[in-house]
From TrEMBL:
HTH lysR-type domain segment(s): 3-60
Keywords of this entry: DNA-binding, Transcription, Transcription regulation
Organism of derivation: Kribbella rubisoli
Presence of keyword Chaperone: no
Cross-referenced InterPro entries: LysR_HTH_N (IPR000847), LysR_subst-bd (IPR005119), WH-like_DNA-bd_sf (IPR036388), WH_DNA-bd_sf (IPR036390)
Name of the protein in its database record: LysR family transcriptional regulator
One GO CC term on file: protein-DNA complex
KW Transcription (keyword) present: yes
């Protein structure tokens, strides 16, 4: 039967005091509750730990043996719990966060809020390749990454999802759709979309550059790129279009020769925080909480 911590604590205090009244006072319990805890522990062990008379309380030989073994084990347990409590309460060290593209206001706001709450933990941020959203997390180069979704990796955890945005079709200014105020996803039929090269998984690349419309019409696959800048260069050269979320399109509207048109009929783009399964440290949990509040 599993031994309860409260029973062990009661035994240790009574072994020190050898007096039920003083033991009850130290534990803020009644004397009857102290007796109940002790009796329960003795039933679990299978023998008496104390000799009790009207005049004295003394350890039995079994009780002395048990006390000798228990004291260091209980002290070690207290240290483990204390260390864990201190670690959880005092987030220190460094937290490395990667992100694809430019860190948006949501991410930067979460970084600032985290830093104000945990001044002893420094956040390092770094840009991740557009075509490899999960590699840096897997290698341990970063503790977590803000990536474009979807994410369906068994060894990674998807935390808060945020920054849901309408998609746009970004094309060259001479494209047949360039003058439109909006377009539907079915109008992508027979168009060419610039694709993102590996090592990103296939389902992720398919989401960024689909090869079919929602109704199943063919969308041609264009050249592969590794960065957004490569893609924008090919768009300006008339090699195809790209699906780009609205904020990214707005940040790059200074590019000559390209336009971005709101696109309906496709899922919104979204960002998510991902990390290695089983490695959600107190610092990482706190940062994820800040993202959820945004």
């Amino acid at each position: 039967m599993a031994v309860e911590i409260r029973e062990l604590e009661c035994f240790l205090v009574l072994a020190d005091e050898l007096h039920f009244g003083r033991t009850a006072e130290r534990l803020y319990l009644s004397q009857s509750r102290v007796s109940q805890l002790l009796q329960s522990l003795e039933r679990r062990i299978g023998g008496p730990l104390f000799e009790r008379t009207s005049r004295r309380v003394a350890l039995t030989p079994l009780g002395k043996e048990f006390l000798t073994s228990l004291r260091p084990a209980y002290a070690a347990l207290e240290r483990v719990v204390g260390d864990a409590r201190e670690y959880a309460a005092n987030v220190k060290g460094k937290l490395r966060i990667g992100f694809q593209g430019a860190a948006n206001d949501t991410v930067l706001g979460a970084v600032a809020k985290f830093q104000s709450h945990h001044p002893d933990c420094l956040i390092d941020v770094c840009e991740l390749p557009l075509n490899d959203p999960f590699g840096a997390v897997r290698r341990g180069d970063v503790d977590a990454a803000v990536v474009m979704l979807p994410m369906a990796e068994d060894d990674l955890v998807l935390g808060p999802v945020f920054s849901r945005q309408q998609q746009t079709l970004t094309v060259g200014s001479g494209h047949r759709l360039a003058s439109r105020s909006s377009i539907d996803a079915e109008e992508l039929a027979e168009e060419t979309l610039i694709a993102i090269a590996g090592p990103a998984p296939g389902y992720w690349r398919q989401a960024q550059a689909p090869t079919q419309t929602p109704a199943g019409a063919l969308i041609h696959r264009g050249p592969d790129v590794r960065t957004l800048q490569e893609g924008l260069s090919l768009i300006a050269a008339g090699r195809g279009g790209m699906l780009v979320c609205r904020p990214t399109a707005e940040r790059n509207q200074h590019w000559d020769g390209i336009v971005s048109i709101p696109l309906t009929g496709v899922p919104e783009s979204a960002l998510g925080l991902v990390w290695r399964r089983g490695e959600d440290t107190p610092a990482l949990k706190s940062f994820a909480d800040q993202l959820r509040l945004k």
